[in-house]
Amino acid sequence: MVSLLFCLCAPAQTAGQGIVFEPAGTQFRQAVQKALSSNKFIFVDCYTSWCGPCKMMAREVFPQPKVGSFMNPSYVSLQIDMEKGEGPELGKKWEVSAYPTFIVFNSRGQELGRFLGGSDADQFIQRVKDASVDKGVDAYTKRWEAGERSEAFLFEYLGVVSKSNKREQCNLIAEELLRDKAETFVSDEQLRRVFMSHLSNPLHPAALYVTRHPEALRQVMGDVPVDMKLRNMWSYYGRDLINEHDGVVTLDEVRFQQWVDAMRDCQVAHADEYRLNVLIELAKRQKDWTAYVSRCEEFFHHPSLDVTDIELCKWMNPLMQCQDMAVRERAAALLQQRYDDLQSGRRERQTRAGNMMLSGNLTAVMPKLIRSLKGEQVDFSKP
After folding, report:
1. How many angstroms separate the CA atoms of 75 and 119, rounded?
2. Are strands 75-81 and 41-47 parallel, antiparallel or unpaired?
């Protein structure tokens, strides 16, 4: 898929025909070195192989001559797959959580601005121009690092940072604004917005208090928004505890246990689901297939959890990399049990994923996945 993306960008590799991106595999530090020597900005396209708008930009916008004429004289342009190479580490550092994200840096590698999503060529050029103007974020950050914490400054700083979609920094500012106000912030409209829009740490006293006593906030904000906010805070936090550095994937064990303990103490609904999802993702990224299938089995057989047909099939795909046939047999057994339950009528076949109708028949795919896990050569393109 990555090679396809760069094929789509092939017309851009000739000067005057579109954006001239640095060769595949170029690291960000190398782009900084080139930008310093040429006195240029740095433009980074943060993409993934499965992102539709990313492919659209690569196919329809980046190759346009007027886009190249604007970009090439002033920018060192770099494309980074956020799921490969240095992508995951940079994504965490830059707080990239949506795709495509486009970031403009000065020649020293300091971020000036960013924007998200696809656009046409003219809109793209204007958005790059807007993102290339130093809006004084560094000045605010220096004041923050120097210890300034006045409420007026914090609200100003939050307004500046939120435009860059920097979730972690927004959370830190929100934590300061809500400090010592866990039981009182609901009566303040500004602070309610701060909580609902920017606080992402469920272990902050304000989040813990609302988890235990949601009634006052629900009365003002409504049941659904508050319940969604709490669900997102508790579920997303665990994913952020997985770190990758120099290709080594680790889990922040201390914070993970604090998170698990807090969910238990607050009686958070779906706590086991959140915990196991993190451990499944960790094992997958570590390619620890024995742990991976064990966690999948724990989820599958959990008395109060239910994995959908489509999620179960997704769990199986990474195991095609596993060379341990005993592990693959365990995975095949899970899929076989689900298939048997569907065929016998003990379980209804999944036809929807959220609000979307599924176009394929997962029941027809399962036997192929089972055979493939058991080592057979399977042609998935044939019905």
Report:
1. 19
2. parallel
Instruction: Give tens-digit pLDDT for 152-176.
Output: 999 999 988 887 778 899 999 999 9
* Active-site residue, from 54, 266, 296, 322: 54
Contact 241, 201 (CB under 8 A): no
Cβ distance 260 to 274 under 8 Å? no
- Give me Rg for the CA atoms of the chain: 24
**Active-site choice (51, 170, 296, 322):** 51
Both ends of the chain: CA-CA distance in Å? 23
Kind plus residue range of the DSSP H or E element containing 43? strand 41-47
- Residues facing residue 352 across a β-bridge: 357
Q: Which residues contact 116 (CB under 8 A, 6 or more apart)?
A: 98, 99, 100, 101, 102, 165
* Cα 223-190-218 angle, rounded to 5 deg: 10
Q: Name, in order, each residue with C-beta under 8 angstroms of 81's C-beta and a sequence gap of 6 or more.
A: 2, 5, 47, 48, 49, 87
Token pair of 282 as six digits: 């960790």
Catalytic residue list contains 313: no
Judge whether residue 358 has pLDDT over 70. no
Indicate if 54 belongs to the active site.
yes
Q: What is the dihedral of CA 244, 233, 312, 376, to 10 degrees?
A: -10
- Residue 129 token pair: 């121009």
Look-up of token digits 């602070």: 191
What stretches of 124-252 adopt beta strand conformation (E)? 242-245, 248-251
289: exposed, middle or buried (C-beta count within 10 Å: 0-12, 13-18, 19+)?
Answer: buried
On whether the CB atoms of residues 279 and 296 are closer than 8 A, the answer is no
> What confidence tens digit (pLDDT) does each residue in 44-88 have?
999 999 999 999 999 999 999 999 999 999 999 999 999 999 999
Query: Where residue 356 falls among pLDDT bands split at 50, 70, 90?
Result: low
Q: How many angstroms separate the CA atoms of 182 and 200, rounded?
A: 14
